[in-house]
Write a structure and sequence with these properties.
By secondary structure, this protein is mostly helical. Helices cover 71% and strands 0% of the residues. The protein is built from ten helices and no strands.
Length: 205
């Protein structure tokens, strides 16, 4: 019997949280300790301010704001910070599956998602409150909605991506180039695909 997407989602979600459960209360480490958590706490302590240039080492504020909102709901702890990151790692794996399924088939998508999950670097980072995991998740979400031509959701998650980490902007020209190669024309859809770039430049200005 072939599993539908709903059961794959549930199995992946439960499995990832069970695999990472032993690490949820580990102390903060490296960039977590030096920049991510200080930036999130600053945002939380100052009414969810997005202006955390110094604390966040100049990075955009989206992930810091997500953490700050988590602290508002549940209080600040290593567990809360790491649960939020593990959820983003689940999103990265699940949307990798969806992108593979959309471009090829369900089997390819599932293999791609599992390969990502058990890649040592990804698995090690997936419980650490740092920028690469949410960036990876938002990249795959934005890419999926770009492929599906669901422009509002693409623009939303593409904007979240570029407001999480600067290198997220590299996805946008890649999508524009792929669209141009496939369609061999420049039209208004390219404008919709480029909107996250505009959001990023508005932020840095």
């Amino acid at each position: 019997m072939e599993l539908d997407n709903k059961w794959i989602l549930i199995i992946l979600l439960v499995s990832i949280f069970l695999l990472k459960a032993p690490t949820l209360d580990l102390p903060y480490y490296w960039d977590e300790f030096n920049s991510v958590i200080p930036a999130a706490l600053h945002s939380y302590n100052y009414n969810f301010t997005p202006f955390v240039w110094e604390e966040g080492f100049g990075h955009p504020p989206f992930f810091y704001l997500i953490l700050a909102f988590g602290y508002y709901l549940f209080g600040h702890s290593q567990v809360v910070s790491h649960v939020i990151t593990v959820f983003f790692s689940f999103l990265a794996v699940y949307f990798t599956f969806l992108v593979g399924k959309e471009l090829f088939n369900k089997k390819v998508g599932l293999i791609a998602g599992l390969l990502l999950l058990f890649m040592p670097l990804f698995f090690a980072q997936s419980g650490i409150a740092n920028l690469p995991i949410p960036s990876a998740a938002l990249t795959m979400i934005a890419l999926f909605f770009a492929i599906k031509k669901r422009f509002f959701l693409y623009e939303l998650f593409g904007s979240f991506l570029v407001l999480t980490e600067e290198r997220g902007i590299l996805l946008i020209p890649a999508i524009l180039l792929a669209y141009f190669i496939n369609e061999k024309k420049i039209d208004k859809k390219m404008f919709f695909y480029s909107i996250p770039l505009g959001i990023f430049f508005i932020w840095i200005i």
